[in-house]
Amino acid sequence: MSETNPAAAGASVDTAPHRYTAAVAAEIEARWQDFWDAEGTYAAPNPKGDLAGDPELAARPKKFIMDMFPYPSGAGLHVGHPLGYIATDVFARYQRMTGHNVLHTLGFDAFGLPAEQHAVATGEHPRVTTEAAITNMKSQLRRLGLGHDKRRSFATIDPDYYKWTQWIFLQIFNSWYDDEARKARPIAELVAQFESGERAVPGGRSWNALSAVERADVLGEYRLAYASDAPVNWCPGLGTVLANEEVTADGRSERGNFPVFKAKLRQWNMRITAYADRLLEDLEALDWPEAIKLQQRNWIGRSEGARVDFPIDGEHITVFTTRPDTLFGASYMVLAPEHPLVDKFTPAAWPEGTHDVWTGGHATPAEAVSAYRAQAASKSDVERQAEAKDKTGVFTGSYATNPVNGEKIPVFIADYVLMGYGTGAIMAVPAHDVRDFAFARAFELPIICVVEPTDDRGTDTSAWDDAFVSYDATIVNSTGAGVSLDGLGVVEAKARVTEWLERSGIGEGTVNFRLRDWLFSRQRYWGEPFPIVYDEDGVAHSLPQSMLPLELPEVEDYSPRTFDPDDADTQPETPLSRNEEWVDVTLDLGDGPKKYRRETNTMPNWAGSCWYELRYLDPHNDRQMVDPEIERYWMGPGEDRPHGGVDLYVGGAEHAVLHLLYARFWSKVLYDLGYVSSAEPFHKLFNQGMIQAFVYRDSRGFAVPAAEVEERDGAFYYEGEQVSRLLGKMGKSLKNAVTPESICEEYGADTLRLYEMAMGPLDVSRPWDTRAVVGQFRLLQRLWRNIVDEATGEVTVVDAEPGEDTLRALHKAIDGVRQDLEGLRFNTAIAKVTELNNHLTKAGGPVSRSVAEALVLLVAPLAPHIAEELWRKLGHGDTVVHQDFPVADQAYVVDEAVTCVVQIKGKVKARLEVPPAISEEELEKVALADEKVVAALAGAPIRKVIVRAPKLVNIVV
Predict the structure, then answer these.
(1) Fewest CB within a 10 Å sphere: which of 38, 333, 883, 902?
(2) Do residues 306 and 326 touch, judged by C-beta distance below 8 A?
(3) Whether pLDDT at 569 is above 70
């Protein structure tokens, strides 16, 4: 909203030549930023070389502090973006001042869809726009005075970086997960087991009898990175496969609003499911918000149950169920439309007596299944699983046998069952599952009660309005030839039926996970090329390290080939596949020159952020991903960090699952293979909130420029038209973005830093208010005036000892600020600095040098530029960055006396000034001897004295 800047207005009329103004702040800030860069002030020494020659530095404890990887947007930063960066900078500065060797730097997650979209639209190479965005972002961040070790910065698009991303991919590709050892091992060890006969080859043949293609197929079932025909979100209108996050709930592409279909395409996958148990177990030792841990647990989705085989036509359909105790209530089965057995169990004609509602109006089962599959392929997984939607499906024409009672039950396909969970098949128990109940009602299927309701509905399901779902009830109607569950509780019934299934050879107790293997392919140009080539037989081969990095070639067209948006049967054609000189190559991989074809998909943008914390440690190492000694120093496990990892990782809660889960998986593989000492990438995680802003919309619902909106009598107007106001995100598209540069120009970077930190607790979202920024600017002006004469520019501090009140104010501030900075409570730390500064202002007269210097040191992590300037003015020649943070004298922190309230019959009769450490016995004596208390008692007998030292005495008469 339009307004007058109080700071700028004040500066224009103030004639004090040495007043702290926005112009003075800008000059100071630029000068000190140049100084820090020239001196390498924030360079963090590594254990090799740097620390070896400096025993004092080597003895310091280390602290590795990280922000989540920023994406360099062409739109640049608004004031909401730096919130976390400023917070980690304040914390890092405090850690340096408390004797730590601090590593704090920032790189750029630079592969991504926005740059490629721009390239598609303009023909400009995505590297050009990305590097321009990085340059702009670096300039914006530098102006904030962030203390990053710039020697360690990089972007994921740098070939020297993605060389190692490709190398890590190859380590994963050339590994398998040994379930017995519970760790990844080199694939060569698995091959040796097959060759020696220690491990049987699937299918029973000897390893030497297999062809190269057959061996590759066997190893593909074990590799941690593998190619397979995977169900994917195929968008012909965009010509690419989309991640689930890029598909809307109604099954269309977020970009372009094209139809998205389920299709099977050859894709690269990461076998993250092998690590499901370890990913769950190791969460417990991490210092993460419980809400984030819960999201990861839910995403991994561990559930215990049983695998059950339902016989059908001489074969069987396998289901996983968490409720084997309800097997007697299974009255039909449902397969996912994509299930590979659907075609096998779809006969030529409908069985006699098939209900009309089961056929979908089709003449044959094959027609019904084909039509329904096409319908299901056009829906997203989210849409298919929506609870409120009508249940749809068709009968396959086949019946399976319920193994516990021999009943024939129909087999349907329905879109509410997904291949991505369990076995892609369910036994439906409609009486005790909400979705199954709705489906059974729609298709007139039996509903059999096998869990006795604890409400008053009874066991006659014909009158039920919904399913009865309970884990604390009694099993009924569940007796067959081989097993009886009647009268048992759920837990006991699950155990009994599982034991019977295992004894009968038709099932077993098992654990299932919601987590699916990670789809790792993208049909895009702007991503890391896979270091994989295929021989003439289609067998995948990894490139040797000497051929890395495999760099992106030039292409004429960055667009994937697009197709008729409604044609689901098309196949993607990637931009890389058009550069035939790059794709078709002759290479010598150790057995002579041969012709190969390169992989033409690229890695997803997640790849570069899976391991960047490791490269920060040793960014210029061209021989190793990271030197093991350096990695162990910065990230190795310790007594309070059993899995190792970064000491503090700050970022948004929106990355709770995917990025954090993927990074944890890569860390565990590298740990298993012996490349790192840390099994977890991030020990402590902190989620910062969001800076919000008001969005103003006209009568059409379009956002209008917030800066041009006027407020009159509680209403808001843009160009004379009244507009609505709603608090929301800040962004260019919403026309409410405030740039850091605009605030720095009007107030200075230190003011912006203070304001963002003072707005509220770091983990809580808060609204931006430009009018409130001036409050922090005035704090800095008062700080300046307490040390510098605004008329002469001379320092006004004196060498006299401060008074008792000032010493107490100082040491309470020191004690409080230390605790607040350690706990990331920056808003309350600023409040304590403000209180001390105001005390000095109100006290009048010159400030004692010892107090002034301590105050500057308290301010230094929060407002580093003005602190450097004042530190220099106070006569110091070295930077404030590495000074010792003040330590409070506890004698001044503890109050000399506290006020104790004395009550009689609940009414206050006296207030006593007593020592804070007074005992309850002594306090009772003092209270009963007080003249006012004696007078109020007037000789009345005392029944009881309740003492809460040192603040309360309650006398009952």
Answers:
(1) 38
(2) no
(3) yes
Indicate if the alpha-carbon torsion angle 728, 733, 736, 741 is positive or negative.
positive
CA angle 39, 42, 45 (to 5 degrees): 100
What is the Cα–Cα distance from 75 to 137, expressed in whole angstroms?
9
Write the DSSP assignment of 431-483 as a string of letters: GG-HHHHHHHHHTT------B--SSSS-S-GGG-SS----SSSBB-S-B-SS-
Name the fold adopted by 303-512.
Answer: Isoleucyl-tRNA Synthetase; domain 2 (3.90.740)
In order, the DSSP letters of 792-808 are: T--B--B-SPPPHHHHH
Q: Which CATH architecture has domain 896-956?
A: Roll (3.10)
The neighbouring-strand residues paired with 427 are 333
What secondary structure letter does DSSP report for 275?
G
The DSSP output letter for 880 is G
Q: For the ranges 9-23, 62-76, 270-284, which has the lowest average pLDDT?
A: 9-23
- Spatial distance between the Cα atoms of 413 and 396, rounded to a whole number of angstroms: 7
Secondary structure letter of residue 387 according to DSSP: T
Predicted local distance difference test score (pLDDT) of residue 113:
82
pLDDT at 1: 47
- Three-class SS of 527-553: CCECCEEECCCCCEEECCHHHCCCCCC
pTM for the whole structure = 0.86
779 neighbors 789 (Cβ within 8 angstroms): no
C-alpha span between 547 and 363 (Å, rounded)? 59
- pLDDT for 418 equals 86
Give the Cα separation of 651 and 856 in Å (integer).
Answer: 29
The residue count for the chain: 957
Arch. (CATH architecture) of 1-39+743-894? Orthogonal Bundle (1.10)
The answer, yes or no, to whether the previous bond of 950 is cis (omega within 30 of 0) is: yes
Three-state SS string across 837-855, please?
Answer: HHHHHHHCCCCEHHHHHHH
For 367, left (φ over 0), alpha (ψ -120 to 50), or beta? alpha
Residues 6 or more apart whose Cβ sits within 8 Å of residue 53? none
895-922 per-residue burial string, b: 16 or more CB within 10 A, e: under 16 = eeebebebbbeeeebbebebeeebeeee
Sorted by where each begins, the domain ranges of the chain are 1-39+743-894, 167-297+518-598, 303-512, 692-728, 896-956
User: How far apart, in whole angstroms, are the C-alpha atoms of residue 307 and residue 327?
Assistant: 12
Pair 362, 393: CB distance under 8 Å: no
CA 287 from chain center: how many Å? 14
CB 188 within 8 A of CB 175: no
The residue ranges of DSSP E strands in 538-657, in sequence order, are 540-542, 584-588, 593-598, 648-651
Peptide bond into 549 cis (omega under 30): yes
Q: How many helices (H) and strands (E) does the chain have?
A: 30, 31
Spatial CA neighbour of 65 closest among 44, 34, 36: 44
Q: What six digits make up the tokens of 547? A: 């051929």
